[in-house]
Amino acid sequence: MARLSGEPRSRTGGRTRGWPGRPRANPATRSVAREVLLLQLVLVVLLVVAGVVAMLAQIRRDTMADARHRTLAAAESFAHAPGLLATLNGPDPTGTLQPLAEEARKASGVDALIIYKMDGITLTHSDPGQIGKYVIGPYGEAAIGKSFTKTFQGALGLSVISAVPVRDPSGSVVAIVSSPVTVEKVQESVDEQMPVFLGSAAGALAVAAGGAGLVSRRLRRQTHGLGPAEMTRMYEHHDAVLHAVREGVLIMGSDHRLLLANDEARRLLHLPTYAEGRAVTDLGLDPRTAELLASDRIATDEVHLAADRLIAVNKRSTTPFGGHRGSVVTLRDTTELQSLAGRAELARERLTLLYDAGVHIGSTLDVVRTAEELAEIAVPRFADVVTVELLDPVLSGEEPREAGTLLRRVAVAGLAEDHPLYPVGELIRFIPGTPVAASVADGRAVLEPDLANAPGWQAQDPARAQRILDLGLRSLAVVPLRARGVVLGLVDFWRTGSSPPFDPEDLAFAEELAGRAAVSVDNARRYTREHSMAVTLQRSLMPQALPERSALDAAYRYRPAQAGVGGDWFDVIPLPGARVALVMGDVVGHGLHAAANMGRLRVAVHNFCALDLPPDELLSHLDELVTHIDARDDSGDGGEGGEHAITGATCLCMIYDAVSGRLTAATAGHLPPAVIHPDGSVEFVELPVSPPLGLCAGLPFETTDLSVPDGSRLVLYTDGLIEDRHRDVDDSLDALRAALAGPERTPEATCAAVMDALLPGKPTDDVALLVAATRQLDPADVAEWEVPRDPAAVGPVRNACSRKLEEWGLEEISFASELILSELITNAVRYGREPIRVRLLRDNGLTCEVSDGSSTSPHIRRAKDTDEGGRGLFLVAQFADRWGTRYSPRGKTIWSVQSLDGKPPDEDLDGDALLDRWDDA
Questions:
Q1: Which of 611, 574, 568, 617 is nearest to 716 (CA)?
Q2: Could you tell me if residue 642 is left (phi over 0), alpha (psi between -120 and 50 degrees) or otherwise beta?
């Protein structure tokens, strides 16, 4: 045994040459000693680096702590200095405090001592040029009486600043003292010690490397320069020969005594426990086998009898390969080889069939197609004919509440079209006693090896059963399709007379095949249900029809993706003042969650539009809403893993004003809109770039204002229209431009042309397209007046409005309009600011607008009996169909809308009667 694992030698004591498989030291291979050396060096370097990093981290923490203490101490000392309050209230606080602050700054080692009062004017500063300017910085906490210390990244690098409030005897904050210092300044003293520390680390590294070298040199001599792979291979060869192979191995010496036997040899030859060291003739072997082992004869695949086994014996001499004379014998059991070969081939075919079934069944997530794939994969490799029946609820995506004998055949494979079996699509009611009914009732497989002698099977339809027997079908295996404990249907395997009948082993395999297929059928069923729910949800959430507006004429197209429902959506939302909002959005993903998230955003946009917000503010509120929803879902309140999150949604919002012809647009990561001018040219509007919703991190959205000529067409779309993995985005935009360009077309014709040009087939992503043709309001339908801030001016303006209403032929609503204008103008004159303007718009309704320069929000309130006012807005709400307020950078506008065909107010209903309604309410 020592010779087996050691180095072979010749009879003269020297090393033998040409021994195949003998590991030799390779100069190009790393030895064990070298790898140990490298490992030790790496560990030492890691320890030194870790020490340096830890020291640097500690130095940084100490430096930051020193900076905080230094700034806070300087600010605290100066803020509580005696006489500071008197100096702050003196005639020249800067002249007195600036020299003192500079002395304190130099003494404390900070960069500056800044003092400013609560009006924000700097009194002292290390830079005299900053004195008298407004201070800029995070001093909100100090202003409310709370000292703080903060770290920030300034122009001079990482800095620390402390701020301390200065209080008067009553406790009120009258000034703030702040003290900044750069971390670099504090760290200068620490940097002087770094060379000594780094030198010590280098010395330790050198000493450790020298010690590792000495250990490696000693190890190299012990291992003779062999590498890890070479040494491992020596022992692996030894173990493989003895234990890993499934053949018996015997090694015998020159005296024909057994030196070694592995476990397989002991099993085949039934060797005694302590067989090593005994002569092979004393082991109780068959005489013929013992004679072969005790001789010097070479043998190749000689078959010997050992008890009830036939063993193939191979024997070779070890003389050419080792330093001793002996032999090695290998043993192989061939008794069941032929039988095992046949069974192994059958098992291989079955495993291959199961693998192919796992690959091909369920590739489309369609219930019927999945059943067809099951039938196709089993014919003719397992059965001659296969039929599949499913319960009706499964086909519609529902889970069957209970298994019944009423099933619909969905697939047949292995027969011509004129076969006698029930055709595809027929609803079959199986009577009790048949194999199918028993399989459905018990949820287990049923085997009928001989259909000719199966009366239960023939009872279903005797005439049809005879035709099936005449066709040659002789054996049947009925296996239920079960998934999650629920029977979804059945699969019937048929064999003809030329094939062997099904046996229990075949039935077990059929159950395995049907079990895998049932999972795919159930997945397809669940997908069908979710897809139907998503389609229903999306259709209910999408606009059913576009509102009719005189400001524009719109048309749209929506095409779902081939993979299912997506999150694309759009909206046309009328706004007061002859304005309309066009919105286009895209939620990442497909399926039910994408449709639900789309509905969330659409409802939110409608609510924000009801507040009459500009596009940038609307997107800001929408972004804040998405961020809140995503944060709630990430915390676990909205589902597992944040599956309801909306992060990644984009939105484009545009508001068109039909009076001025102005278009205001803002985007949150959405594609730019296109404008088709009346001459047929196409322009893509360049909007300020903003990230998708939920990713803005509080950054403001920006708007773009542009004039749109009358008769232009606005085009909004989602990325599914232009994104194609086989085409560049720029090429897609050029194709879109070409499809939009051309003579004047209606929005409906424009939508049709774009869809035909860019989406001839089924898209991989859902697509939404909205085209709106603009129409400006006739200037004759607009009237404006400037109103001085004088109560006496209310009457003349009201009279002018009345004349304009008569000119427009709106005498029927003149009384209500005059009352509304009188109340709104009076409120603007009394509570608002100049400039005050009044505007009347005649569109689908009459819009009265009163604008002023204030931003106070009016609201209806309940006036007391002793109040002289407070009932104006209530009267406006009674006479107007709708009213509200919108804000602008220059103030606010209170508007009301009246129907043009509205009935005049009851002549007997005076102001007191209206107020009685208020009291009754």
A1: 568
A2: left
The burial of 552, by beta-carbon neighbours within 10 Å (0-12 exposed, 13-18 middle, 19 or more buried), is given as: buried
According to the model, what pLDDT value does residue 387 have? 93
CA–CA separation, 533 and 182 (whole Å): 61
Instruction: Note the pLDDT tens digit of each residue in 838-892.
Output: 998 888 888 898 888 888 777 666 555 444 445 567 777 778 888 888 888 888 8
Alpha-carbon torsion 271, 275, 280, 281, what sign?
negative
Radius of gyration of the chain from its Cα atoms, rounded to whole angstroms: 46
Q: Are strands 566-575 and 552-559 parallel, antiparallel or unpaired?
A: unpaired
Task: Give residues with Cβ within 8 angstroms of 462, minimum separation 6.
Answer: none
* Cα distances (angstroms) measured from residue 311 to each of 248, 337, 352, 360: 10, 11, 32, 44
Cα 524 from Cα 530, distance rounded (Å): 10
DSSP 121: B
Distance CA 103, CA 106 (A): 5
As given in the structure block, the two tokens for residue 92 are: 């020249």
What would the two tokens of residue 256 be? 């024909």
Question: Over the stretch 23-56, which tens digit does the pLDDT of each residue have?
Answer: 555 554 567 667 777 777 777 778 777 777 777 7
**Of the candidates 783, 791, 862, 871, which has an alpha carbon nearest to the alpha carbon of residue 825?**
791
Which is nearest to 36 in space by CA: 24, 28, 44? 44
Q: How many whole angstroms separate alpha carbon 707 and alpha carbon 699? A: 27
| pLDDT (0 to 100) of residue 342 | 61
Here the tokens at position 452 are 């000719």
> Which H or E run includes 715?
strand 713-717
The SS3 of residue 670 is: coil
Beta strands in 168-227 (DSSP E): 173-182
Expressed in angstroms, the distance from the first to the final Cα of the chain is 110
Dihedral, 509, 511, 515, 517 alpha carbons, nearest 10: 70
In angstroms, the CA 749 to CA 100 distance is 80
* Cα 158 off chain centre by: 36
CA distance 870 to 860: 8
Beta bridge partners, 849, equal: 839, 895
pLDDT band, residue 5 (cuts 50/70/90): very low
Calculate what percentage of the chain has a pLDDT beyond 90: 12
Nearest Cα to 495, choosing from 378, 348, 352, 347? Answer: 378
Q: Note the pLDDT tens digit of each residue in 428-478.
A: 888 887 888 888 877 888 888 888 888 888 888 888 888 988 888 989 999
Whether 918 has a pLDDT exceeding 60, the answer reads no
Beta bridge partners of 406: 429
Strand-pair partners of 895: 849, 884
Output the six-digit token pair for 557.
Answer: 């197209």
Contact criterion met (CB below 8 Å) for 736 and 536: no
Q: What is the pLDDT of residues 671-710, one digit of tens each?
A: 999 999 998 899 999 999 888 888 866 678 899 999 999 8
Q: What one-letter code names the amino acid at 684?
A: F
Beta strands across the sheet bearing 891-899: 782-787, 836-842, 845-852, 891-899, 882-888
Element (DSSP H or E) covering residue 509 = helix 504-541
Q: Whose structure tokens read 């809403």?
A: 625
Concatenate the DSSP letters of all residues of 55-109 into one string: HHHHHHHHHHHHHHHHHHHHHHHHHT-TTHHHHHTSS-HHHHHHHHHHHHHHHHT
Paired with 446 in beta bridges are 478
Q: How far apart are CA 183 and CA 168, in angstroms?
A: 33
CA–CA separation, 770 vs 748, rounded Å? 10
Q: Look at the block and give the residue holding tokens 């935009």.
A: 733
Report whether 771 contacts 555 (CB < 8 A).
yes
**Global pTM value:** 0.53
- DSSP run (H or E) holding 800: helix 794-807
Nearest-angstrom CA–CA distance, 776 and 678: 13
